[in-house]
Write a structure and sequence with these properties.
about 260 residues, 2,3-Dihydroxybiphenyl 1,2-Dioxygenase, domain 1, 8-stranded mixed beta sheet
């Protein structure tokens, strides 16, 4: 369930994750304490924005919502693109929606857009120039997997296959509606159909998984920092994981691999 940094740069693969929060300072304090991230100013297209670094390498982005924008706080998964404008047209032609862009990043590191699939799950597309995406992955404190949580895989997997060239195959978990998305034979993301278990307040959404050295200890740390444990630590075929929310309610999964 880990995608290497080089794999993340393949067109179609999840390559970056970004969070829009109400308070930059509180959010940086939370993730700095949880993952050991350090922050540096980034492009200011939509307001204050910073890039998170671990061991001197970029791992994620954090932005601040305008005070008058009462939007849910959530992590956004970005999928790599060789041409953001072409990808945006493909999204529209396959039943998706492009809500923002494509537009150039303020510091000319790339070109991006924000879109949603036919079931409403929001994601970004990123055409990297000098910033290709997450430079550090596979270690504690880094994003290691992205998974689409939706009502059923059959209604949405053709969209991602046609737009991004994914090869979808059953994940091999008996009794579960679960697909693995592959590019050139490499697993890059998952799709999990949860039926009526889809959260009403969130709908279809992309989930980011962050590696931690010890899931139970990290879950306790989340609560100490003002967050919540939404689904308690449990064992899976890929490692011990827990679903949590940060101090502003942004949901993500922590996983202890191996």
């Amino acid at each position: 369930m880990t995608t290497e940094a080089a794999t993340r740069r393949m067109s179609g693969a999840p390559c970056w994750v970004s969070l829009l929060a109400h308070s930059m300072s509180a959010t940086q304090e939370f993730y700095g304490a949880l993952f050991g991230w350090e922050f540096r100013p980034g492009p200011q297209h939509f307001g204050p924005y910073a890039r998170a670094f671990l061991d001197g390498r970029e791992v994620a982005g954090v932005g601040e919502l305008a005070p008058d924008r009462h939007l849910p706080v959530s992590w956004t998964t970005y999928l790599a693109s060789d041409d953001a404008d072409v990808t945006a047209e493909q999204i529209r032609s396959c039943g998706g929606t492009v809500g923002v862009g494509p537009l150039d990043a303020e510091d000319d590191t790339g070109r991006m857009a924000i879109a949603s699939d036919p079931q409403g799950a929001i994601f970004g597309i990123w055409q990297g120039r000098t910033l290709m995406g997450t430079a550090h992955t596979g270690e504690p404190g880094t994003p290691v997997w992205n998974e689409l949580v939706t009502r059923d895989t059959g209604s949405v997997s053709p969209f991602y296959e046609h737009v991004f060239g994914f090869e979808a195959e059953p994940a091999g978990v008996a009794g579960l509606d679960h697909l693995t998305l592959r590019l050139k034979g490499r697993p890059v993301a998952g799709v999990h159909g949860v039926g009526t278990g889809l959260p009403r307040d969130r709908g279809s959404h992309w989930m980011t998984y962050f590696a931690v050295p010890h899931t139970d200890a990290a879950a306790r740390r989340v609560t100490e920092l003002g967050g919540q444990v939404l689904h308690a630590a449990r064992d899976s075929a890929h490692g011990r994981l827990a679903t949590v929310a940060d101090s502003e309610g942004a949901v993500f999964t922590i996983i202890q691999q191996g």
